[in-house]
Amino acid sequence: MLQVMRGAEFPLVTVRTRVPESASSASTLNLDLEINFAGQTVEYKQVPFQRAVEGKENRITGTIPAKLSDFKIEPPSLLTMPVKNDIPMRVDFTWHEM
Is 39 helix (H, G, I), strand (E, B) or coil? Predict the structure, then answer.
């Protein structure tokens, strides 16, 4: 699988987005994302994320609806069983305000 994903050549996945200041208090964020994976850059528009605030802690969760074909990767087979094209990326991160 590492060969199929070109992991030796491109060991990192980069996700870029901007959160508008006007959305700083919203509980749902629809973000435009730019993902670089396996040497390909793909844009996803208006991906929904949930935001929860507890004290000084902010938590963002959501799922990026990625597919192998988006990154020009042919779904491999495992013991003659084809692997699904869908590779949803679950996002769950937290940051603390200073």
Answer: coil
